[in-house]
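Hi team,

Below is the intake form for Membrane protein from Microbacterium imperiale. Please confirm the fields before the structure is written into the shared record.

FORM ID: S-0412
PROTEIN: Membrane protein
ORGANISM: Microbacterium imperiale
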Amino acid sequence: MSITDARPTGDAVPDPAGDAGGTPSHEHAPPRPRRPWLMPLLLRVHFYAGILVGPFILIAAVSGALYVVTPQIERVVYAHELRAPVSETSLTLGEQVRIAQDHIGDAATLAAVRPAPGPGDTTRVMFAQEGLGPSETRAVFIDPGTGEIRGDQTVYGTSGALPLRTWVDQLHRSLNLGEPGRLYSELAASWLGVVVLAGLGLWIARFRTTRAKRDLLRPRRGATGYRRLFGWHASLGVWLVIGAVFLSASGITWSTYGGANVSSLRAALSWQAPALETALGGDAAAGDPHADHGVVAAPTAAVAPEAFDDVLAVARTENVDVGLVEIRPPSAAGQAWVVQEIQRSFPTQVDAVSIDGETLAVVDRVDFADYPVMAKLARWAVDLHMGTMFGLVNQIVLFIVASGIAAMVVLGYAMWWKRRPTRDAARGAGSAPAEALPQAPLWGIALVVAVAIGVGFLLPLLGITLAAFVIGDAVVQAVRHRRHSVTRPRPTR
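The structure came back. Fields below:
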């Protein structure tokens, strides 16, 4: 019995419909109707996830917004490496490769070449070198007109990010802590979707019952204190729902554990990109929209620089028809050359062709038009998430969404602080919403448990932290109930 159930001192009031012994009325009272449980449950999830995982989401949002603007910053900071004076003369790829090799010497092994995509651009001759990280290469930037070496930098991934953008990218991905740091981004991506969807459920429930519906679509005018913060939090949140859920879902595909499960699911459902056959014996290499984050393979045998021109010429007669391409020599004996389009803007140009370096015969070709629908969607999701698909427009939208998510986290903490019980100096911040799951019917509890188990299998890190939250919350509630049962007054009979 809680303190609110205690009666004043005196005899029990007899139940007129009871037995002659005067059984107290509450023993024959009809059962109390169940209180609503779904919305309080969403509120509790939204509260706890926002408070406990908010810092991870905030860091991911701020670093993501910063990453979005790095391509423009990169073009300014590395203008000398990326650009060269337009010249009426031009060197062959083979001549440019020889210049780069003479510059490098025996310190590294030739791995790929990216011809200058247009007038005024430089050619990248890329080398695999011991000590570089996954998907990193050492790039020598060559003026295709004069052969001048414009720079020598470490670059990363298919995007060809230079050191500044790579640092911001790794901050967003792993806090620059390497593989262990990726757990932070997996937590942020996983819980972002949970927080947003729970918040959307709460918003819908309030929108259906409130008369001032416009106050949930834009901040309420004249509101102050907590109501002002809530108005901004609710109205800003509903406009960011689609973008936030997209970033959560697409971000999970990069994660360590959840991403591996997503890849396994795509493979089981044949949702992967078609494989390009690269082995002259017939083996194929599977396509992957995240392939730019792997290990760079270096050729095991010497490659004639002039072969780059010959292989590219054959590829141009097949399906390679854009300026942004990468030419990779065989990584081992019995392997074909690969010429891959790397244009990530729309319309998507990622066609690839493999070529026998000895005979210049086409071994295989893969066109983006032949990708399964789900493989195309995966490719587009990655490019949208990175801000490359629609250029500047894509970047602006991502910057707004990421900045909005960061603002939502800050507003959430401000609301929590505003709701603190000011009369109790011992408590510095607002308390959690009341328990909800004990009020749920059996089918509701079973549904919640089933969803939690399913989510835990697909997203293990989310499942583990969710279980930790539930156990921790149960312990806190048990301690509170025990303290309350010791201090509450007992009714006098």
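SUMMARY LINE: Confidence is low (pLDDT under 50) at residues 1-23.

Thanks, M.
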